[in-house]
Amino acid sequence: MKRQINAGNQITEGVIWKQLLFFFFPILLGIFFQQFYNTIDMVIVGRFVGKEALASVGGSAGQIANLVIGFFAGLSTGAGVVISQYYGARDSRSLNDSLHTAYAFSIAGGILFMIPGILCSPALLRRMNTSPELMASSEVYLRIYFAGIVFMFIYNIGSGILRATGDSRRPLYYLIICCILNIILDLVMVVVFHLGVAGAAIATVLAQAVSAVLVTAALMRSSDIYQLQLHKIRIHRRVLKSQLYLGLPGGFQSVMYSLSNIIIQAFINVFGTDTTAAWAAYGKLDAVFWMISSAFGMSITTFVGQNYGAGRHDRIRKSTRICLLMDLGTSIFVSAFLILFRMPLFRIFTDDQNVIRTGAYMLKLITPTYAVFVFVEVLAGALRGISDVMIPTFLTLFGTCLLRIAWMFIAVPKNPCIEMIIIAYPITWTMTAILYIIYYQYKMKRFERKKREL
To answer: I need a labelling partner for 43 at 20 to 30 A (CA). Which of 19, 126, 224, 347 fits?
Structure first.
């Protein structure tokens, strides 16, 4: 049964910039603490085990793990868009069907990824030119990670559902609890029991299991127009079709994006353990920008999705413009901060001077161009909110994936050095941003023209 628009829904009626910030900050902190899981693993093994352990956790194994999680996170955006639109329209029945379908899909997906992930870890690591001295520890970390991947899938889909309905605070609270738990378990496993890389992986899986239980319990206790009931978890074909239509392009896009990073990681690995460790540490500092920009992208998707479902089309373009300005301002600030404090930041991960110098040099080359990617993240998020996923996916695949891969195999062999590898990022970001700006303007003009004709 459909219900009327809730007068208290501030996303569809409140002051745009205030509501974006209220929604953005819990998402940002949530992403921060989620990233903190792996970062804590890297810091603890880097400081207490050595740079080889640092390279194992943050190098090839980390890239493969990010590929799988990124694919499912992309798929789950389809469920988030559908749920945000049903929630904005107050369609209780369709909303609950979507919730239970998404949960069933996350459980099935976790099991399907777990088994081949455990079996294929050694082959995947070898394909990435992982150094022989890193193979054993990387394999252990990756296999344990895959063994607990179903918990990560459940948490991602559950927190995505809460955010799609406008609740970005509880996923944050659960992550804070589990992040503290992860730190404690890391110290116990690595420092007390001397389990090394395996201990860090076990700590992460156990903490993720707790976060999955917490978010599931929150959905089961909901008093809103949606509620998770375990006996109702099943696939509704009609709903799954909509979720896959919106989610598969995002999942495929995430895979291609991660694949391009894996290819770059393979090129980086050729330069040895120090460079691999430096790139791994840089990746965690670089994540500061991605966390902020991703939070803006997720915020605008839910914001646009709910307003689209509620018929408040006047707020779509305005909220996107405000979100762009916010993201641009923060990206400039983050870039300046990372460049200014790059040396002490790298010392958090290691005392090895060569690793620190190499990582700081990498950061100086890439960081000044962060602001360009803001247009890709925010405009893609806004387009997802109005169920436009196919063209944005093609734009991202071409700009940040195919061009980047082509650069690695054509340009880098002609001049095989770190600079040639790193410059692939600003070049492909700029190309993709230009394509997104052109398409977004075209789409919005067409969207507004159709609205006037109705």
So the answer is: 126
Question: What's the token pair of residue 281?
Answer: 């540490």
Contacts 24+ apart (CB under 8 A), 335-338: 335/289, 335/367, 335/368, 335/370, 335/371, 338/285, 338/288, 338/289, 338/363, 338/367
User: Exposed/middle/buried for 387, CB within 10 Å: 0-12, 13-18, 19+?
Assistant: middle
Three-state DSSP at 158 gives helix
Query: Rounded to whole angstroms, what are the CA distances from 422 to 237, 337, 385?
Result: 44, 20, 32
Contact 301, 81 (CB under 8 A): yes
Residue 286 amino acid letter: D
CA pair distance 91, 95, nearest whole angstrom: 6
403-425 pLDDT per residue, tens: 888 888 888 888 888 888 888 88
| Among 105, 47, 43, 50, CA closest to 73 | 105
Q: Find the range with the poorest average confidence among 26-35, 218-227, 417-426.
A: 26-35
Distances (CA, A) of 322 to 11, 16, 96, 147, 378: 14, 8, 32, 42, 10
Mean per-residue pLDDT of the chain: 82
Top mean pLDDT of 5-19, 172-186, 270-284 is at 172-186
Q: Which two tokens stand for residue 429?
A: 């970001």
> What's the CA gap between 105 and 92, in Å, rounded?
20
pLDDT at 58: 64
CB 58 within 8 A of CB 284: yes
